[in-house]
């Protein structure tokens, strides 16, 4: 009987998705900024680790679209999982708990399996994008597979037409949209509700379904802020990544009622 009660107690609580106004994402950004100022030391540490990871990817893989696809997808698709510590900092700050860097790593211990499964899904999307982009570039846009010299000394932008660029970005945008739908509240739900990866992703899908206009604005903010981060050679990510990580927690708190 005690074992049955223990399993029941561990079962994730029922939740309800709220509908919010179209402009509500700006409130999440504002609250995220407050948390960024409050936890700036820990934020810099988290962001610096992610920026170094991004620099390594871009340095090794960023000279040609075949490899740029891997670099960008590896960084962006991994970002929802990499911001886990930032989400945890906002969760702890809201409850008045300690917000040290070590405290921000607690979800990796308590919710590791679910986060790993979610990360595996994102990795599968990254691999799929790499394969699909290669097929698209060679079969549709007639961009040849690069050799080693071309990869490091001759870029895609030197020879690509505007149609090729727009087409390539559009294909990547479809993948980004799918990942966005799957990850809106996934990490906060795993951390706060101890959901499994599949249950948390289903909750994200439902959240997007019930809030299409707010999610449109939220997605646009993510794109603009991420573009600023990349446009500054990732230096801007020291602010953008923590801001978005904290804002993700506040989005979850607004959108999901326990």
Helix and strand layout, with pairings?
Layout: H1 2-10, E1 16-17, H2 24-38, H3 40-61, H4 65-82, H5 84-95, H6 101-104, H7 106-110, H8 112-140, H9 148-153, H10 162-183, H11 186-193, H12 197-210, H13 212-231, H14 237-255, E2 256-257
Antiparallel strand pairs: 1-2
How is this structure best described in words?
It is a single chain. The protein is mainly alpha-helical. The chain has one domain (21-257). The chain is 79% helix and 2% strand. The chain has helices spanning 2-10, 24-38, 40-61, 65-82, 84-95, 101-104, 106-110, 112-140, 148-153, 162-183, 186-193, 197-210, 212-231, 237-255; strands spanning 16-17, 256-257. The chain has a two-stranded antiparallel sheet. The longest helix is centred in the middle third of the chain and has 29 residues, at 112-140.
The shape, in one word, is globular
Output the structural class.
mainly alpha
Overall mean pLDDT stands at 80
Order of helices and strands: HEHHHHHHHHHHHHHE
Rg for CA atoms: 19 Å
| Count of DSSP H/I helices | 14
Low-confidence stretches: 1-9, 147-154
Domains, number: 1
